[in-house]
Amino acid sequence: MTSNSRRDFLRAAAQAAGAATALGTVPLGIQKALAIPANNAKGTIEDVEHIVVLMQENRSFENYFGSLRGVRGFGDTRAIPLPSGKSAFYQPASTPDGYLLPFRPNLPNLGSQFVQDLDHGWVGTHAAWNQGRYDQWVPVKGTTTMFYMTREDIPFQYALADAFTVCDAYHCASMTPTDPNRYYMWTGWVGNDGTGGGPVIDNAEAGYSWSTFPEKLQAAGITWKVYQDEGTGLNPSTGWGDDDNPFIGNFGDTSLLFFKQYQNAQPGSPLFQATRVGTQVVNTGSYFDILRQDVMDNKLPQVSYITAPEAFSEHGNWPPAYGAWYVDQVLQALTSNPEVWSKTVLLLTYDENDGLFDHMAPPFASSTPDTGKSTVSTVNEFYPGAGSNPAGPYGLGPRVPMIAISPWSKGGYVCSELFDHTSIIQFIEKRFGRNGNLHETNISPWRRTVCGDLTSAFNFKNPNRSFPQLPATTFPADKNRHPSVKPALPTTQTMPVQEPGQRPARALPYEFFVRGKVTEDGTGFHLHFTNTGHAGVNFLVYSGNPSDLPRSYTVEKGKDLADKLLLAPGGKFDFSVFGPNGYLRRFVGTADSTRRHNGGVLQIADGFDVANGNLQLRLKNGSNDRCTFKVVSAYNGSKIEGNLHVRSDDTETVTVDLRKSDGWYDLTITVDIDTDAQWRIAGHVETGRESMSDPALGG
User: Fold this and answer.
1) Most buried by CB count within 10 Å: which residue of 184, 279, 293, 527?
2) How far apart are CA 23 and CA 472, in angstroms?
3) CA–CA separation, 41 vs 233, rounded Å?
């Protein structure tokens, strides 16, 4: 940091102090992280010199952030439909209503409660997912699956999201428990091809030998290290750090230690020194002594991983408040040297969802034509089944929290690009890779296509400087284990209300189009996907016919894909296409073999006025009759004005001004000559510029 930067730091610190009513109420770690300006020498990712990964345990995105302002949470008006016809929030259950909505338990100090953990294994998670129908969460996981917390319960976690950038489309990598998800983060897969002891879909910890990403870092000369506590020893007798005392060790979360190359490493060797050394708080010192010393000595590695003891991991049966203290201490250590923090990215995420519900159905790779198509290979993305474990896609799994904490991600942004745990590897590749030397071949082609590299969560060119008020954290006074708490259900159910308002949104690399029409012979429905953006995309297609399975379509950037879907009895169809960032296209109607309404004759096409952030509709009338279209916006209930009267065999174009809705649209379109026909088109016009979150989410 230059002397001018140092003066800026002191000035920023003073500004931060002025922003808070009492500086003592601000967690010291966040206070410092916000005050230190970014290294901005090049205005690119090259300014990052340190990447730190802190992966906590077992929280779904909506368990923590379903009510957070400006993310795709409980206010989502485009949730997938269940076979019951209700939205995904209305999970079937043995209640008087026949369903269970997300609920906030009536418990004091909810963020400090020891709420039970749930089934989160392969069998149970695939049963809840139910081939994409997504309707068995309560029967499989129990009623606690639907519990959530708010800002009142977990103020520190909300403060982090408000201070930095929260990713609301970040999924765990697989529908599995802890270890396999951490293997994805550390190796790119779970030995999917059957070599090295894989594929692994459980916590067997049997000893594996496929290659890991840190070995690539080592070979490329990139410094790396795991920060952890040794507990009573990092060896097989302690479960490689999974101690009986929950306040020491690493909870067995340094999953590299389940690989033979690390188990057999000798003292003094790079693999041993990077993974089998840590603090020894059972004897002396604190959890963060080594980390803090490395930061102060300017010896923080280029890539670091942090694993917490069980009590601080935020796993079920441990309070989020304990984890808040631990994360705050990590931030205090990293910011103890402003020079180091000015060049550091901290990625805070969670390995899996612990059986806790999240309404966003995860993308998956289609394995047969009956479940969709893909322009990119889906090899090694489908588990064939073995014993009591059914066949199914490895992932993605449900959404989990991810907050990008750094000088380049301040400002309370939301980033809605699709990510998973392999995105962490891709981010490290992007920063430190040279000529493919860090390319992790374990990551499948399909996963690289649909999951981004996290760079969209940052603004390296113009780092943001904002200073919100933030809550304090305290070390837990209670160091005992407690029985698990099972929250009681509410006597009256109401849909949760999301915090009002919007938050700034990062620019996304997406641009794609989905067209739908009845086939010319009237025997099916034709879907055509076109991807003109800068990133691959996965679409999930749901049918109003309960006998139809959900389908998955993956389209690489610059490519297109088409498919013919079967009609329901009577020629009826109701297909909904879901894509990233609230994208929805719904086609409803009845195939008419004589006039082909809502198909070959009546068609809606949309286009983007990228320069102005507006939407264009192309209304086609190929029938023999004059028709009038009606377009209604869900944002204000108003009718869209324009030339909606279309003569026979003609087309009209209507521009929809989206300035008042920050580029967001949600339109329902009907036509007077076909009362069965209905289109719904919703999403956001990406312009390459930062925007604001969907205003419907805070409604």
Assistant:
1) 184
2) 10
3) 43
